[in-house]
Amino acid sequence: MSKTLKWGIMGSAHIATEQVIPAMLNCQYGEVYAIASRSTEKAQNIAEQFGIPKCYGSYEGLLADDDIDAVYIPLPNHLHVQWAIKSLEAGKHVLVEKPVGLSSKEAERLLQETKKYPHLKVMEAFMYRHHPQWIKVKELVDQKAIGD
């Protein structure tokens, strides 16, 4: 990979500041480039804490930054689809926290929107390998109860 992906963090949620930003700071192909919060002061504090070059007091400001390639969305659940779509419209790849939507209808709406932007990727931030259902599936596969 020849290009470093510049990430914009949309919001100041605990999951972002305690888990995702620290992990992204260790990624050789990504840079936490900007953070946005409804509070400029909060965005500035987080930017200083993590050495993030840019901060914004609005999500719209973050999306208007042409240097940002991808957006991580840890906003309240009811805002996920709305801001994922706005991020796509702004030409950004999207990593949105789980759940992607509050209903299958919302998820379908986002899916339909993604088809308008085939050059962009959207992914739900969900750690599948540690989810109890996948642990159970692995157990069933190991027992040869399912699969080949």
Tell me the quaternary state. single chain
**CATH architectural category:** 3-Layer(aba) Sandwich
Q: The CATH topology, please?
A: Rossmann fold
Low-confidence regions: none
The overall pLDDT, averaged over residues, is 94
Q: What does this protein look like?
A:
The chain has one domain: Rossmann fold (3-Layer(aba) Sandwich), CATH 3.40.50. By secondary structure, it is of the alpha/beta class. It has helices at residues 14-25, 40-50, 59-63, 80-89, 104-114, 132-142, and strands at residues 5-10, 30-36, 54-56, 70-73, 93-97, 122-125. The longest helix is centred in the first third of the chain and has 12 residues, at 14-25. The protein is built from 6 helices and 6 strands.
Please describe the topology of this protein:
Blueprint: E1 5-10, H1 14-25, E2 30-36, H2 40-50, E3 54-56, H3 59-63, E4 70-73, H4 80-89, E5 93-97, H5 104-114, E6 122-125, H6 132-142
Parallel strand pairs: 1-2, 1-4, 2-3, 4-5, 5-6
Helix pairs in contact: 4-5
How would you describe this structure in keywords?
single chain; 148 residues; alpha/beta; Rossmann fold; 6-stranded parallel beta sheet; 6 strands; 41% helix
Structure summary:
By secondary structure, this protein is α/β, with parallel strands linked by helices. 41% of the residues lie in helices and 20% in strands.
